[in-house]
Specification:
Length: 195
């Protein structure tokens, strides 16, 4: 995931859904946040046949130069191995959250090094759609009771007859982050009245 805040949210989701995994798969999903100071967790995953989830944010693997992360270093305290090599040998299934925030070239190059079995991505705003397998829009989310409510901004026209004038849409401006980080479409209208 692209940020520490989203990473913590994903961890919380796994805590909440532990019983779900037990009910449907007969075992709990073992999950942990990747931390280069606790590399023994990587070895545990490599030897385990259970459902293991490694939660990692992009910053842990996509920096270089003087800020290079331990994930790319050959480490004496990790038996002379590089953590990224151990991860790559697992042939993981990558599940990416907020893919539109992970589109940078450095991040994409870093993701290739995981040597994934396959990749699933979740986003409300895919910039580029590759083989969509499921689409869940706002109305369907509401119908399935996955969200509490949906809100639509609108306007009302009164006493406007087709013979007296019309409203003309001049542009649609997409803008981001009005306080809560949500994406809103801002509409600009121009009124033209026929006499």
């Amino acid at each position: 995931m692209p940020s520490i805040a989203i990473r913590e949210g994903i961890k919380k989701s796994f805590e909440i859904t532990a019983d779900h995994f037990m009910e449907y798969y007969g075992k709990k999903a073992r999950f942990f946040i990747y931390n280069s100071a606790r590399l023994q967790e990587l070895d545990t995953v490599a030897r385990s046949a259970t459902i293991n989830v490694r939660i990692i944010n992009a910053h842990a693997f996509n920096v270089s130069g003087k800020d290079a992360r331990r994930i790319d270093m050959t480490l004496d305290d990790f038996a002379g191995r590089m953590p990224i090599d151990v991860i790559a040998k697992n042939r993981s299934i990558l599940i990416l959250d907020e893919l539109q925030k992970l589109g940078g070239g450095k991040t994409q190059d870093g993701l290739k090094r995981f040597k994934r079995l396959f990749m699933l991505s979740f986003s409300a705003m895919h910039v580029k759609q590759n083989n969509p397998i499921y689409v869940l829009d706002a109305l369907e989310s509401y119908n399935q009771k996955l969200v509490k409510k949906i809100e639509a901004k609108g306007f009302e026209l009164k006493n406007l007859r087709g013979t007296s004038g019309y409203l003309y849409l001049s542009q649609i401006v997409l803008s981001k982050g009005h306080g809560g980080g949500e994406n809103l479409a801002a509409f600009s209208f121009t009124g033209v009245y026929v006499v």
